[in-house]
Specification:
It is built from 15 helices and 17 strands. It is an alpha/beta fold. The strands form 5 sheets. It has a 7-stranded mixed β-sheet, with helices on both faces. The model is unreliable at about 1-10 (pLDDT under 50). The structure holds pyridoxal-5'-phosphate (PLP). Pyridoxal-5'-phosphate (PLP) binds next to α5 and α6.
C-alpha cells in the first residue's frame, strides 16, 4: 500500500475506471443450481434402475419423506412435484374460500394458487425492512369474508410470525405461509415450518435448496396428510375407489434422489451464502443510495438464498433499472425480484384493494437481487461491487 492510497477514503480507493473493468466472459446469473457430485447421483440412479420404479410413492420418495420428517421434526410433511401445486392443493384441502389477505410482493405463483381455488386475493402492504406483510395492514383488511392469511417469508426473511399468529387467533383465521424461499430458516432454534397452520416450501432449481423441481407442505393437523395424498394422486383411495376430484401432483423418484443429495450439502451452501453476503455488505455498506435490509435478529438462522439491495435513484445517481442494464452490459444478470408487484400484472390489476400499497410500490421500484450462489468466486463479487461503486462514483464526479 503506498502513501496516496492511505489518505484516500475507502470508497475512492475502491473505485476503478471503466477501462480496468471488463465484462465477464461467461454470464453471471442471479443464482445457479447446486449440483451434487455426479458419482453420488449415479449411485442413486443405479438404485432406481434396480428398483425399476420411477414414480407413485416409490422407495426413494419414501426415504426422502422420512429424511425431511427428521429434518423438520414433524411427521406432517407431504411432497409434491412443485411448490405451486403444493400450495394450490393445500388451500383446496383446507377448504379455504372467500377472501384471503396476502402480499403483492411475491412471485406470482402465490396468488395463482388462490386463483385456482376461486379465492379472492386481498393485497395489503409490506413492512419496509424485510418486505413481509405488515400485521397492522393485515388486521385492517379483515372482513366477514376473510378466511385466511397467506403470508410470504420473502427472500427467506421470516414474517412477523408472533403478530400474525395473534391476529389469526383473535379473528379465527387460518394462517398459511408461502415459505418457498425459507428452507433451512429457523426462529429460536425451531424450523420456520412450525409457524402457522401450513407452510409451503418450493424445491425449484432456482431456490437455494432444490430437487430439480419439487414442493412440500408442512402442517399442524396430522389428519390432513390423508387428504393431501388423495389430492395429489387423482383422489384414489384404492384401486377401485376415487373419493375426491384430485389431480396429478406427485413427486417422482429422480426428484426425490436429487432432494436427498442436495440436503446433505445444505449446511455448506448456507455457509457459502453467508460469506458472500458478508462481502457484499462490507464492500457496498457505505455507497450512498444503496440500502441493505437490516441484519436479522440473533434468534433467526437465515439461509442466505438471496441478496436484495434497494437502489435509491436520487442518492445513487442512477435508477435501479439503469444499474440493472449497466450490469447486463458486463454479463451480470441481477434480477428485479419482485417487480412488477403481483397486483400490477394484467391478470390481477383489476382486483380491488383498499390498501394503497405504498411501501410495496416503492420497494418494487428500488429492489435489485444481486448474484449469490455457492460457487461464485469472491473475485467476481468484488468485480460486481467495483462496477456498482464505479457507477456511483460517476455520479459523485458530476456533483
Ligand atoms: C418459486 C416460488 C413459488 C413456486 O414454486 P415452484 O416450485 O416453482 O412451483 C411460489 N412462491 C414463491 C414465493 C416462489 O418464489
Amino acid at each position: 500500500m503506498n502513501d496516496t492510497t492511505e489518505i484516500m477514503s475507502p470508497d475512492v480507493r475502491d473505485r476503478k475506471t471503466l477501462l480496468e473493468l471488463k465484462p465477464f466472459d461467461k454470464p453471471i446469473y442471479v443464482t445457479r443450481p447446486y449440483l451434487p457430485p455426479i458419482e453420488e447421483f449415479a449411485a442413486g440412479l443405479q438404485e432406481i434402475w434396480d428398483n425399476q420404479w420411477l414414480t407413485n410413492n416409490g422407495p426413494v420418495l419414501q426415504r426422502f419423506t422420512s429424511t425431511l420428517s427428521r429434518y423438520f421434526q414433524t411427521d406432517n410433511v407431504c411432497l409434491f412435484n412443485n411448490g405451486t401445486l403444493a400450495l394450490q392443493l393445500g388451500l383446496q384441502g383446507m377448504g379455504i374460500s372467500g377472501e384471503v389477505i396476502t402480499t403483492p410482493f411475491t412471485f406470482v405463483a402465490t396468488t395463482h394458487a388462490l386463483y385456482w381455488n376461486k379465492i379472492r386475493p386481498v393485497f395489503v402492504d409490506i413492512e419496509p425492512d424485510h418486505y413481509t406483510l405488515d400485521p397492522e395492514k393485515v388486521e385492517a383488511a379483515i372482513t366477514p369474508w376473510t378466511s385466511a392469511i397467506l403470508a410470504v417469508h420473502v427472500f427467506g426473511y421470516p414474517c412477523k410470525v408472533k403478530e400474525l399468529a395473534d391476529i389469526a387467533r383473535r379473528h379465527n383465521l387460518t394462517l398459511i405461509y408461502d415459505a418457498a424461499h425459507a428452507f433451512g430458516v429457523e426462529i429460536d432454534g425451531k424450523s420456520i415450518a412450525h409457524y402457522g397452520d401450513m407452510s409451503m416450501f418450493s424445491f425449484h432449481a432456482t431456490k437455494l435448496y432444490h430437487s430439480i423441481e419439487g414442493g412440500m407442505l408442512t402442517f399442524q393437523d396430522s389428519g390432513f396428510k390423508q387428504i393431501l395424498d388423495y389430492l395429489k394422486n387423482f383422489g384414489f383411495k384404492s384401486e377401485t375407489e376415487v373419493v375426491m376430484p384430485g389431480t396429478n401432483a406427485k413427486m417422482n423418484e429422480l426428484q426425490a434422489l436429487m432432494g436427498i443429495l442436495v440436503l446433505k450439502h445444505l449446511d455448506d451452501l448456507i455457509e457459502k451464502g453467508r460469506a458472500i453476503e458478508a462481502i457484499y455488505r462490507e464492500r457496498l455498506a457505505d455507497v450512498p443510495g444503496l440500502k441493505f435490509p437490516p441484519p436479522l435478529p440473533p434468534n433467526v438462522r437465515y439461509n442466505y438464498g438471496y441478496m436484495p439491495i434497494e437502489v435509491n435513484e436520487a442518492e445513487f445517481g442512477m435508477s435501479r433499472d439503469r444499474l440493472y442494464e449497466e450490469l447486463k452490459k458486463f454479463n451480470i444478470y441481477a434480477r428485479r425480484y419482485f417487480y412488477p408487484l403481483v397486483s400490477d400484472f394484467a391478470c390481477y390489476q383489476n382486483v380491488q384493494t383498499r390498501d394503497p400499497l405504498t411501501v410495496a410500490k416503492g420497494v418494487a421500484e428500488r429492489i435489485l437481487c444481486l448474484p449469490t450462489y455457492y460457487n461464485i468466486d469472491h473475485d467476481s463479487i468484488d468485480k460486481i461491487c467495483d462496477l456498482i461503486t464505479y457507477h456511483r462514483g460517476q455520479f459523485e464526479d458530476r456533483l
